Amino acid sequence: METAQEVLKACTVNGKIVKLPDVQLNKPLYGEVKRTLRKIGGEWRGGKIAGFVFEQDPSELLAEVAAGVKRNLQQEFQFFETNPILSDQLVALANIQHTENKLLEPSAGRGALVKAIQRAYSHAIVDCYELQEMNRTILSALPGVNILGEDFMDAKPIGLYDRIVANPPFKNNQDIKHVFRMFCHLKKGGRVVSVVSRFWQENTGRQENEFKKWLGLVPHEKIDLKPGEFKASGTNVATSILVIDKP
């Protein structure tokens, strides 16, 4: 076998595990195969498993990459998981008053922020949206999760929520679009706490300027995060936290 595609076509699927063919692969070829499988959600696990483990049946994704389709789920869905320390910080800033508060996580990923909410408020129920099917499968297994749909931006804002805690996608100003939409979903007296990139702060396009103008009209606090906050999740984008209250 001389190409990654040949290796991928020879892989076998056993439940949620992809097994490599029983042949010796040179280091560069193995590296390419490993990167491809990781980009579709696989993580190598040695020992008795000795395969790439996925959160759900990887057969369809494996067939795509074996056919030469380029996939990178992290980039496609802009999923960069929030670490536990930052998750707890966001929840503390949300200042949830009691478990009867109506709570939303609009880009819930695999539930990092949901878990942080429940560490602080063990009986909390959190409404969630999540684009990625694999992540919705993980979310559905967590206690206290109410999955309302896939794309939060398709949801009609009706001023329902007391607190919204989020780490939305950043690409193409999605973060500031999400934050404004989150604000529209708040009750009066509600609060949004969201991670955002610093792109809107450093640029002067129409969308960035409109967001800055709007932000100046509402009570808010901006907290810059240290460099590399999301390095372990796969991105070095500079980030901040926005805390916004709805009068």
TrEMBL record:
One Gene Ontology molecular-function label: N-methyltransferase activity
Entry keywords, A to Z: Methyltransferase, S-adenosyl-L-methionine, Transferase
InterPro entries, alphabetized: DNA_methylase_N6_adenine_CS, SAM-dependent_MTases_sf, Small_mtfrase_dom
Keyword field contains Methyltransferase: yes
GO biological process, one term: methylation
One Pfam family this sequence matches: MTS
UniProt-recorded name of the protein: Lambda phage type II DNA modification methyltransferase
